[in-house]
Amino acid sequence: MSVILLIVEIIIIGGMVVGLYQKNTNLVCKSKKRYDGKTVLVTGGTAGMGLEIAADFAHRGARVIVACPYEDEGLHGKKLIIKSSGNHNVVFKLLDLSSLQSIRNFVADILKTEDRLDILMNNAGVGIPGDFLTKDGMNFIMQVNYYGTFLLTMLLLPLLKKTGTPSEPSRIVNTSSVLHKFGKIDFENWNKTGHWAKIRIYGNSKLCLALFTRELAKRMKSPNVIVNVVDPGAVGTKIYNSSRIAWASFVSFIFLILFKHPWEGAQTALYAATSNRAGQFKGEYFKNCSRVRAGELVYDEKLATRVWEESVRLVKLSDDELNQCFSS
């Protein structure tokens, strides 16, 4: 028993040391840039980091569109953003990234109601809620975290390209994780159930996002759009509650206390979206408001191309839609 207590004490002390280091080294986005007259779309912008990101842009004067699959959460998030910022130009729209049809309906609505899109913050994602297939025949974690984000981005690319200019390009910010380093690309088993540990599926999805970011940056010849990917770090959000394990709430609490509050976790995404320095880069990986090197697989160009091709096939992007993305 004494050995167990010693181990527990070591873990607690180690956690406190790590947490203290994290709290004292977390950087904050210093950009004060205003976004009056500009439009920002934040997926998952109604809770956690997404809510903090959306509120920040509302404070900057932007028209903010927040999207999530839950109407009650969405309307509540919208109310919080308006109350916090005093900016009433906040819109909530339903978007279910686990449904290709929902994504297409959402984009059709955006293209009908919006004449510009300056920033796309791909923040939405799930943790490890389960290992099952969606109605589209894709692994749920993979579809929400990657395939859905891929399709959404591609369908919105023409509007982003139309809005941006060489001097003030539109920006796309994708959200990865340190767990991308534990991801693996196995095209034969991407969407199998019972094949991967759920945490590995999560890592796979985040690796795909980083690869997608690199490949899109390479293919995007227009100077009107830039895309980068961020790692927010360990953040205490409700994403852990989706794991359906007894200690999920405890994990969220520990991450919140020792690592980052959602506001702190939002800072790197805000940096990538607003800072002039970050705007000089394309296809790069940012962490703690700095450009850093991602896992080695992210720089495998052949792998990135293959992931791109398979993604286009899986989400059923047409040749015409692809041509609209990259035509001059």
In a few lines, what is going on in this structure?
This protein has 328 residues and is an alpha/beta fold.
Shape descriptor reads globular
Q: What strand line-up does the widest sheet have?
A: 3-2-1-4-5-6-7-8
N-to-C series of helices and strands: HEHEHEHEHEHEHHHEEHH
- By helix and strand content, what is the structural category? alpha/beta
Average pLDDT confidence is 89
CATH architecture name: 3-Layer(aba) Sandwich
From the 3D structure, determine the CATH topology.
Rossmann fold
Radius of gyration: 19 Å
Helical content, roughly?
40-55%
Terminus-to-terminus distance: 69 Å
Question: CATH H level: which superfamily?
Answer: NAD(P)-binding Rossmann-like Domain
Spell out the key features of this protein.
328 residues, eight-stranded mixed sheet, single chain, alpha/beta
Report on this model:
The structure is a single chain. Helix content is 48%, strand content 12%. With 328 residues, the protein is of the alpha/beta class. The protein has one domain: NAD(P)-binding Rossmann-like Domain (Rossmann fold, 3-Layer(aba) Sandwich). It has an 8-stranded mixed β-sheet with strand order 3-2-1-4-5-6-7-8, with helices on both faces. β5, α6 (198-219) and β6 (225-231) form a beta-alpha-beta unit. α4 packs parallel to α5 (140-163), α5 (140-163) packs across α10 (301-315) and α6 crosses α10 (301-315). The radius of gyration is 19 Å and the shape is globular. The termini are far apart.
